[in-house]
Write a structure and sequence with these properties.
Elements lengths: L7 E5 L3 H13 L2 E5 L3 H9 L3 E2 L3 H5 L4 E4 L4 H9 L13 E4 L5 H13 L3 E4 L2 E2 L1 H7 L2 E5 L3 H14 E6 L6 H29 L4 H8 L7 H12 L8 H18 L4 H18 L7 H9 L8
Parallel strand pairs: 1-2, 1-4, 2-3, 4-5, 5-6, 8-9
Antiparallel strand pairs: 7-8
Length: 303
């Protein structure tokens, strides 16, 4: 492994989270190369002093730490281990930091494939959103061998506020993230239901937000998502499709474990109904719009 000052890092997936992480790495002085299909994202990294590549494989070439921040397990597999896969281009002994939310089984499978290539694998889903990605304050729910943590540490030190060591094998990090996503999905659905219920009761929605955020019924998701409803702004910070995917994974896991997840199942149906109404790519607070359509309610419009 190279020294920290000469360490070569790569980030594949320069969305709102990945770009913030890549910029933090560039700011630290480490060599960083990024790839994304969006040319504007590549421009954003270049402006921060990072290098850009024309493919995932090119970005990963010779890298010591490869951070992959894509949507799901299928994208992760294709990019890492598909034709002209990025993993095979890395330095032997390097570490893959895999941040996509996925099932524990997929994380375990990817770790084995990485090991076969002489690489380490860190099962490292993230939480915190674009704002914390931009400031290097993300939370990592990570599991993997101690050597994987050690090799990823220079990068984790500049992109993470908290790194939880959750086990010595891939799969544990993914499991912790699914518990988080169960709660997140349920809380978003509940917040949307509460605000549309308030609308049906004829309440001042701005005042409802003020009162609830100062009361026991508040949640992080209520506080974060309800402003989108109040502003009538459903541009996707986190899309409906994220929760149809993640709550779907939870549903699959619950069947395997023979464990009831009734609240998560109800929330999944609410997200699916919203997707069926044509809002799959919109902000996840659009669950409120779906309920409003069903119940004939008026919600605030974007000014």
């Amino acid at each position: 492994m190279t020294t920290t000052t000469k360490l070569k890092a790569a980030v594949i997936g320069l969305g709102s989270m990945g770009l913030g992480m890549a910029r933090c790495i560039a700011k630290s002085g480490m060599e960083i190369t990024g790839f994304d299909l969006n040319p504007d994202a590549l421009k954003g990294l270049a402006q921060a002093g990072g290098k850009t590549a024309v493919s995932a494989a090119e970005a990963a070439a010779g890298s010591d730490v490869l951070v992959i921040v894509v949507v799901n397990a299928a994208q992760t597999r294709m990019i890492l281990f598909g034709e002209n896969g990025a993993a095979a281009k890395m330095q032997r002994g390097g570490v893959i930091v895999s941040c996509a939310t996925m099932s524990p089984e997929n994380a375990k499978s990817f770790a084995k494939e990485a090991q076969a290539l002489g690489l380490h694998y860190l099962d490292a889903p993230i939480s915190g959103g674009a704002a914390k990605a931009a400031t290097g304050d993300l939370t990592f729910m990570a599991s993997g061998a101690q050597e994987a943590f050690a090799r990823a540490k220079p990068v984790l030190d500049v992109v993470a506020g908290k790194v939880y060591h959750l086990g010595d094998a891939a799969g544990a990090g993914a499991s912790f993230k699914m518990v988080n996503q169960l709660l997140a999905g349920v809380h978003i659905a509940a917040a949307c239901e509460a605000m549309t219920f308030a609308a049906r009761l004829g309440l001042d929605l701005d005042k409802v937000y003020e009162v609830i955020t100062a009361s026991a019924g508040n949640s992080w998701m209520f506080e974060n998502r309800v402003p989108h409803i109040l502003e009538g702004d459903y541009a996707p910070r986190s899309a409906i499709s994220i929760f149809t995917k993640d709550l779907g994974i939870i549903s699959d896991m619950s069947r395997q474990e023979k464990f009831p997840v009734q609240m998560a199942s109800s929330a999944l149906q609410m997200f699916l109904a919203t997707a069926a109404c044509g809002m799959e790519g919109d902000d996840d607070a659009s669950v409120a719009r779906m309920i409003a359509q069903v119940c004939g309610l008026e919600l605030p419009k974007k000014s």
